[in-house]
Amino acid sequence: MLRTTCESLHERLPFEQDGRVITADARIDNRDELIGCLKLDEKPRDSITDSAIILAAHAKWGEDCAQRLCGDFAFAIWDRASRVLFCGRDCFGVRPFYYYYSPGRLLAFASEIKGLLCLPGVPRVPSEKRIGDYLAQLPGDKTLTFFQDICRLPPAHALILGPGGMRLTQYWALDPDQRLELGSPQEYARTYLEVFTQAVDCRLRSAFPVGSALSGGLDSSSIVCLARDSLNRPSAKRLKTFSAVFEQVPGSDERRFIDAVVDQGGTDPYYFKADRVSPLADMEKVMWHQDEPIWTPNLYVHWGLYGLAQSQGVRVFLDGFLGDNVVGHGWEHLKDLAYHWQWKSLFRELRGISRRQTGFRLTDLVWSYFWQGSVLSRIAPLFPRDIRFANTRSVTHHPIAAAIDPDFARRIDLQARLRATQLQEPSPPDSFRQRHFRDLTSGEIPLGLEIADKASAAFDLKTCYPFTDKRFVELCMKIPPEQRIEDGRSRMILRRALQGILPPRVCWRAGKADLSHCLRLGLLTFEQDRMDEVIQESSASIGDYFNTVFLRKTYEEYKRNPRGATFESLWSLWTAVSLSVWLNQQVLTPGNESALGAVQGAATNGISTRSDNGLINGRSRGKESDG
What we know:
The chain is an alpha/beta fold. Among the domains are: about 185-325 and about 440-505, HUPs (Rossmann fold, 3-Layer(aba) Sandwich); about 515-585, no CATH class. About 45% of the residues lie in helices and about 10% in strands. It is built from 26 helices and 14 strands. It has helices at about 30-35, 50-60, 115, 130-135, 185-200, 220-230, 255-260, 285-290, 300-310, 325, 335-340, 345-355, 360-380, 385-390, 405-410, 415-420, 430-440, 445-455, 470-480, 490-500, 505, 515-535, 540-545, 550-560, 565-585, 595-605; strands at about 15, 20-30, 70-80, 85-90, 100, 105-110, 150, 155-160, 165-170, 210-215, 240-245, 265-275, 315-320, 460-465. It has a 6-stranded antiparallel β-sheet, covered by helices on one side.
């Protein structure tokens, strides 16, 4: 029901044509290309819906249709003649797609888990290993949910169900080996700006007012400046911007950078005073929309921004999420310079870092990169793998896993899961591309997008992310790493491209604000009673999963010194409250005795309710990383 584009106002779903039926949540960005290729020109273009384009693409290309689409989409097509169901999800998972499959009996799919739980025969039983992943904050499996047998369709995948059963197939993948060779940094910057402007412009298609997050970071500021100029050119439309400010917590505040963008004019700014709101604000309502425990402690900030946007009539909301992953910072390239003995270039960059960033001495940097990048990276392959990686952290003393109940950890074999998901540092001779590719294929990306989609839908908003544009991501993957870093500054490709468009204060900024300051103070200021109830009393709902003695000790230390709380201790306290609310609301509810019995049986009998392999990495980052 979240119609936002002019074309979507004509949509009536499900839609059937020539024996094919489609239902979709989609915005297709390469419409003009597809309309011409599919010979749909006989109709006015603004009357051709995106779902009709997808259906025509499936009629022409069959299972290859999804790879031809650019945009955000989750769709399902039923072909009556072949009796085959074809479902697709976009390349990064901007639009959610959940499904339940019982072979020979039922395949059900939905945009929200609650839609599946309404069906008779779909179990409401929690996945213990997913809960373990949540508590230990492991890098993300792209298929699991917190409910047994309810799955997520991975990004860039299609689901096909036919007479022979169900199968998943990947229709698109990044190629980390492609290279783009241009003549100068200025040519790279012009190409970057051209493709990124296209990514922003196609997300401005809206029959309603458009808004954008503006944090003051490089990513959101770039989107705001390009969207503002694009909207102002053809008409008198003005972009509405929505910013979180932290007047009482200066360490989290970015107001001076936000004001630099607003002072350029052309926008209508609105502000959400995030330090005056509890990090657990509307927790029960948020949880109902999410269907699962909340991975991102900073979600309350976006919840407030979405509510403010709705009050101003906004229906399309742009966001700078994923900018770090897509553009890349470039620091790993320093290892490659050391490995290739490019000492002059390396020294220039290290000198710039020591001059621009506090806490970095030039002599320490030179020695570190000489030893790690040049010496260790060359001799490491000579040693066996177990010796080579002996410096990785011990999972036995994992700081987050310490808060987990030992019996529960043994039951799901958490130690093995931690070992299996540990990531080694990228190594020369191609450190940057290794890290870039890993960041772009991380499981935390679809998870974060799903969380934002469900939260924004609560306020009738469609969230759009220019940094997830497939064409732009493919470009960034091809740009050489040396275009990212210059004179100790990272993300130079973005800075060069947007120079003269971004205000200088934002364009050349270093560092970023840290939202954890507000979280540390806000939990204790607003939620001590709730935390006392959940943690001090250690309710039965979380007692089966947490080391309650350790959890209480962590809480007491936090109350004595909230400013000194580590990320690990904050994560343990946050997950305790979030998991408690979810279990009580979604699982341990009246009339759901089967799920309650499964939880209690697994806890008392030492058996796992499911042997799924799950991993997720939802570490909450503060702002976009600009340094």
